[in-house]
Design a protein that fits this description.
Structural class: mainly alpha
CATH superfamily of the largest domain: Rhomboid-like
CATH architecture of the largest domain: Up-down Bundle
Radius of gyration: 22 Å
CATH topology of the largest domain: Rhomboid-like fold
Number of helices: 12
Oligomer: single chain
Strand order of the largest sheet: 1-2
Shape: globular
Largest sheet: 2 strands, antiparallel
Number of strands: 2
C-alpha cells in the first residue's frame, strides 16, 4: 500500500527542535558569511588540502552550515524540513541530530579522501541531506514524494534515482562546481549506519537486557529443589528471533509495514534513554 506523508503549512513554532535549530543555524551562518565575506568560506568551508596539510579539522563540521547562494540555501532548508520532520518525529531529537552530523562529517571525510589536494572550498548541507534522503527512503519506501514539486515518485525510487545521478555525474565530472563525492558519501554513510551499525546496536542492547532479565529470573527461582529452567529463558529466545525478523522487515519494506504487535515487540527491546549516552 502506497503511503502519502503530508506536511502541514509551514509553521516554524510547530517544527521539531533539531529541524528548527538546523534551519536557524544555516540561515544565521549564511547571513554572517555575506557580512564578513573575505576568506570566510576558505576558513570554515571544507578545503581538503588544508584539512590534511594544516590540520584544519573543524572544517569537516563547519562546512555543512555554509551556502554559496540564496537558492542553494533555500533548496537545502526545504530538504531538511521535508525529510527531517518525519525522521525526527520517529527517532527523537537526539538520535536524529546524531545521524545528521554523522552523515555530514562522513561525507566530508570521503570528499577529503577522494580529492586530498583540492584547494577549492566545499560548502553546503547536501552531504547530510543525502543521508536523510536514504533514511527517509528506508523508513518510508512507499511514501510518495513530488520531485521538483511536479513529479510523483516513491521514496525508494527517488533515492535510487539520485544515487545513480550522483554516481554518473561524479564519474564524468559533468558539473565540476558541485561536490558529488560529498553527496555520494552522505548516502553511503547513512546507508551503512542504518543497515549495519544501528541494527547491530539494537540487537546488542536487546541481548544485554535479555541476559540481565534471565539472571534475575534464575535468582528468583525457589531454591532447594531442581525445578525446570525458568520459562522466561525460552520466551526471551523467541522474542530475540522475532526482533531479528522485525528488523529485517523494516530494512526490506520500511517501518510503515509493521503491525501493532510487531511495534510492541520492538518497543520492548529499544535502547532506553539512559543507554544512549554511551553511544
Amino acid at each position: 500500500m502506497t503511503r502519502n506523508l503530508a506536511h502541514g503549512p509551514l509553521d516554524f513554532t510547530q517544527m521539531p527542535p533539531v529541524v528548527k535549530v538546523l534551519i536557524v543555524s544555516n540561515v544565521a551562518l549564511y547571513a554572517l558569511s555575506w557580512l564578513v565575506a573575505g576568506q570566510f568560506n576558505h576558513i570554515f568551508g571544507l578545503v581538503p588540502a588544508r584539512v590534511l596539510g594544516e590540520r584544519w579539522v573543524w572544517q569537516v563540521f563547519t562546512y555543512m552550515f555554509l551556502h554559496g547562494s540564496l537558492l542553494h540555501l533555500l533548496f537545502n532548508l526545504l530538504a531538511i524540513w521535508m525529510f527531517g520532520l518525519p525522521i525526527e518525529s520517529q527517532w527523537g531529537s537526539r538520535q536524529f541530530l546524531k545521524f545528521y552530523l554523522i552523515c555530514g562529517v562522513g561525507a566530508a571525510l570521503i570528499n577529503v579522501a577522494m580529492a586530498p589536494g583540492s584547494q577549492v572550498p566545499v560548502i553546503g548541507a547536501s552531504g547530510a541531506i543525502y543521508g536523510l534522503l536514504v533514511a527517509f527512503a528506508m523508513m518510508f519506501p512507499e511514501a510518495v514524494v513530488y520531485l521538483y514539486a511536479f513529479f510523483p515518485v516513491k521514496a525508494k525510487h527517488m533515492a535510487i534515482l539520485f544515487g545513480v545521478m550522483e554516481f554518473f555525474a561524479s564519474a564524468t565530472n559533468a558539473t565540476p562546481g558541485v561536490a558529488r563525492f560529498a553527496h555520494l558519501g552522505g548516502m553511503l554513510v547513512g546507508y551503512v549506519y542504518l543497515r549495519w551499525w544501528w541494527v547491530l546496536k539494537m540487537k546488542a542492547t536487546a541481548l544485554g537486557r535479555g541476559i540481565a532479565e534471565r539472571r534475575v529470573a534464575l535468582s528468583e527461582r525457589p531454591s532447594g529443589r531442581a525445578g525446570r529452567p525458568a520459562s522466561r529463558a525460552m520466551t526471551y529466545e523467541e522474542e530475540m528471533a522475532e526482533v531479528d525478523r522485525i528488523l529485517d522487515k523494516i530494512l526490506e519494506r520500511g517501518e510503515a509495514s509493521l503491525t501493532p504487535e510487531e511495534r510492541n515487540v520492538l518497543k520492548r527491546h529499544q535502547p532506553r534513554p539512559k543507554d544512549e549516552g554511551h553511544a
